[in-house]
Amino acid sequence: MKQRLLGWIKQLTIFLLLALVITTAVDVWRGKDFPKESVPALVGKTLAGETVDLAELSQDQAVIVYFWATWCPVCNFVSPAVDTLSEYYPVVTVALSSGEDLRVKKYLQHHEYRFDVINDENYELGNDWQVKVTPTILIVKDGEVKWLTTGFTSLPGIWWRLMMS
To answer: Dihedral through CA 155, CA 159, CA 160, CA 162, nearest 10?
Structure first.
């Protein structure tokens, strides 16, 4: 029994290391053309009426920037993690091509998300930031992108990137 358990632990460790290597390689490949040093401005009004300025917010602290959409199936798995982190860390979220403000508000209410949202109804911010995949998560500090990941990312994955920034 002990040997079987050690075998499972060894297989799990190998699987996790392999998953880490693959996801890191995918992130590097998808982010290779992204301008990390000179990021575009991200200033806007949230659905709650608050003004957000990423450059100002990211001075001296890391900020999670989350590009997502109501029509994105993977975002249904990532948004709860971002919502949890938004209680403890600064988060700027941008809803891409998700409809009018009222539609996005109803979506947030239905899912009980508390994070603030800038509604990018016409994909202007998405184009400025060259977002090609939803969800896209960036960790920005001092106006520089420290981490970029796309697709599914877990709560520990986002938190780890935030702590490494």
So the answer is: 140
Q: How far is CA 94 from CA 1, 98, 142, in A?
A: 50, 10, 19
> Which DSSP helix (H) or strand (E) runs through 66?
strand 63-68
Calpha distance 107→95 (Å, rounded): 11
d(CA 76, CA 121): 19
Report the half-sphere exposure of 140 (CA within 13 A, side-chain side): 29
DSSP characters over 74-112: THHHHHHHHHHHHTTS-EEEEEES---HHHHHHHHHHHT
DSSP one-letter code for 21: H
Alpha carbons 58 and 62: distance in angstroms, whole number: 6
Cα separation of the two ends of the chain:
42
The token pair that represents 62 in the structure block: 């890391």
Q: What is the pLDDT of residues 78-122, one digit of tens each?
A: 999 999 999 999 999 999 999 999 999 999 999 999 999 999 999
Whole-angstrom CA distances from 53 to 91, 141, 146 are 11, 13, 18
Instruction: Answer yes or no: pTM beyond 0.85.
Output: no
Share of the chain above pLDDT 90, in %: 60
Residue type, 36: K
